[in-house]
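Run log // design_07
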């Protein structure tokens, strides 16, 4: 019973922790982000992942509320449990299939993607604390801009 309550609390906390928009159409969303001059950032999560909840509360939610990041990043969540997502080739797939293609081994994982679904810079996997995470997050965004300007 205690385990059921813990799982329920984790699920509730994860579900309501951050107003991150769920992925619906990878191709359209990435195209729109790039056309608006923003980085398409795909956040891979799991419902009962305590590290996902910590990342959302410590980094991702503040990012969505920060006027400095809003013009730079289009953040979308791809929950492992999602059943129908339009992939980059316009085919409807389950999130698990898309996540497997990217060889994501655990959550949370941040993927910095181009319009074709290619990873522009190294992903960020895992979460321990926000102390160093902000550094890696900012560095990845800066490296995406360097990558895009070099094309």
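design_07 sequence
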């Amino acid at each position: 019973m205690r385990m059921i309550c813990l799982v329920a609390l984790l699920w509730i906390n994860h579900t309501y922790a951050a107003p991150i928009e769920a992925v619906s159409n990878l191709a359209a969303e990435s195209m729109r982000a790039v056309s608006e001059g923003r980085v398409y950032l795909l956040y891979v999560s799991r419902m009962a992942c305590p590290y996902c909840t910590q990342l959302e509360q410590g980094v991702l939610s503040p990012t969505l509320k920060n006027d400095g990041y809003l013009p730079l990043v289009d953040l979308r969540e791809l929950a492992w449990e999602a059943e129908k997502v339009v992939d980059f080739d316009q085919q409807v797939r389950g999130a698990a299939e898309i996540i497997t293609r990217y060889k994501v081994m655990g959550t949370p994982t941040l993927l910095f993607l181009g319009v074709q679904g290619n990873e522009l810079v190294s992903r960020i996997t895992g979460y321990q604390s926000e102390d160093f995470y902000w550094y890696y997050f900012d560095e990845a965004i800066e490296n995406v801009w360097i990558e895009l300007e070099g094309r």
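Helices lie at 2-16, 26-35, 50-65, 95-101, 130-149.
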